[in-house]
Amino acid sequence: MTDPSGVKPAPGPDQPPIPVRLVTFNTHHGVGDDRRHDLPRLAKVLAAADADVICLQEVDRHFGDRSEDVDQALLLSRALDMQLAWGPAIDEERPGDAPRRQYGNALLSRLPILVSDVHPLPGTGEPRSALRTLVELDGGALWVTTTHLTTRSAEERARQVQLLRDLHTDSMETGVVVGDLNAAPNAPELSALRADFSDAWTLAGDRDDQARWRFWQRDEGHTHPARAPHVRIDQVWVTPGIQVAAARVLDGAGASDHLPLVVDLLVPSGV
User: Fold this and answer.
1) How far apart are CA 54 and CA 263, in angstroms?
2) What is the pLDDT of residue 2?
3) Neighbours of 14 (CB within 10 A)
4) Is the separation of the CB atoms in 238 and 176 below 8 Å?
5) Interacting residues of 35 by C-beta distance below 8 A, sequence separation 6+
6) 3-state SS assignment for residue 187
7) CA angle 242, 248, 250 (to 5 degrees)
8) For position 13, what pLDDT does the model report?
9) CA 135, CA 86: separation in Å to the nearest integer?
10) DSSP class of residue 62?
11) What's this model's pTM, rounded to 2 decimal places?
12) For the segment 111-155, what is each residue's pLDDT rounded down to a tens digit?
């Protein structure tokens, strides 16, 4: 929008908020509930969401036979014509000149990615990590931290959540934490997150999910398991000032054992 002189207004608190559509989706390494690895099917689901930023968990890069040893992150970014940030949780050498065997979180973005770094999370068992990125907006910026917390215990999740909170420093005024948290939004182990972030689903002015005939669960935002979702473990958390116009659980077309969650954010200008 410009004034009569043709000059675009400078970003700032007096300007309208910036719309950003964000998706979070645990892809189950591209294997659907029919047990088939089908990356084109997954790409179609993501394309239909028409998102500016897509946060993915359980993504393989040359991991092995279960995902046909392909680089899923790169192939999806090319199929959707989006920039890629990558955050491995598992990173192993393979014999000879073979590409490294990796598994973790990915962020795809229509918007410029300015910063990207990876942070291992504490805990035992399967390694976990957080992918922290800074995305440039037209008149602002947004920190996006994508993660996948452990299933082992609430105590380990609490330590991981504390690290996520510590990653979001005072200078990172505007940001979101998203992913498969393997806990309900009101779980005690998420208390450190709730101290500085709010659950986007509860803030949303408009909500819709895939409950369909399960009228007693309608609008509860359940995302797992995909065939009969009854838990809300895939979440988006936002800092104060970010508005949530809408939140929807999408039909995943059988592409994963989770359902994708899309949120329409309104991010303050100039921060």
Assistant:
1) 11
2) 44
3) 9
4) yes
5) none
6) coil
7) 140
8) 67
9) 14
10) S
11) 0.93
12) 999 999 999 999 999 999 999 999 999 999 999 999 999 999 999
